[in-house]
């Protein structure tokens, strides 16, 4: 049996779906991990942790380069400054050491779209004509969608103890437009929202 919805109902459903899609934050799904023994104090000083071969930020050549590195560091610096944290040049003078990691993963999903019920048949003196599909059943459009899932991690380590104090992990679909400075600034600001500090 086919179900026909009034156009107003279809429009309302479409608008609600668009509203939900618009609710996604710049950083997508953000998970926060906070140490129960090592706290992050608002207004602390920080420095970027030295990068060693054991702590490579990314092995993916699309993002393992100086341009992306500078953009991400600038985005994190701006986000931390907005929360009241102060960057110092020497790690030995900092309360916190900051580092980040980025990963990209190719994924795909199967999506099926219901193309809707058959159109209303036109009826006249000689019977009804219209409809499409077998026995008037709705048609399905099935496609494979390939996308890139991006993960970004920002760590704050207590320099004195060497213990991880706070970690934010962002997971979302990404494309080439996410590598520009404005997009990275928005992601970093979203990731540090729950960090103790000044303006939220």
Automatic annotation (TrEMBL):
Assigned keywords, A-Z: Signal
Domain named DUF4136: residues: 37-196
UniProt keyword Signal present: yes
Cleavable signal peptide: 1-21
Taxonomic superkingdom: Bacteria
Keyword Signal applies: yes
Protein's UniProt name: DUF4136 domain-containing protein
């Amino acid at each position: 049996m086919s179900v026909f919805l009034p156009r107003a109902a279809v429009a309302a459903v479409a608008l609600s779906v668009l509203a939900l899609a618009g609710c996604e934050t710049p950083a997508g799904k953000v998970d926060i991990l906070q140490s129960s023994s090592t706290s992050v104090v608002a207004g602390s000083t920080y420095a970027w942790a030295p990068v060693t071969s054991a702590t490579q930020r990314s092995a993916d050549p699309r993002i393992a380069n100086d341009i992306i590195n500078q953009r991400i560091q600038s985005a994190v610096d701006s986000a931390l400054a907005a929360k009241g944290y102060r960057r110092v040049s020497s790690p030995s003078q900092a309360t916190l050491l900051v580092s980040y990691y980025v990963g990209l993963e190719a994924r795909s999903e199967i999506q099926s779209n219901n193309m809707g019920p058959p159109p209303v048949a036109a009826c006249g003196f000689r019977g009804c004509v219209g409809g499409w599909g077998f026995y008037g059943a709705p048609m399905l459009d099935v496609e494979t969608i390939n996308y890139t899932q991006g993960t970004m991690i920002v760590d704050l380590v207590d320099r004195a103890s060497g213990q991880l104090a706070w970690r934010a992990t962002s997971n979302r679909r990404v494309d080439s437009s996410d590598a520009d400075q404005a997009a990275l600034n928005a992601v970093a600001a979203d990731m540090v929202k729950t960090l103790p500090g000044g303006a939220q």
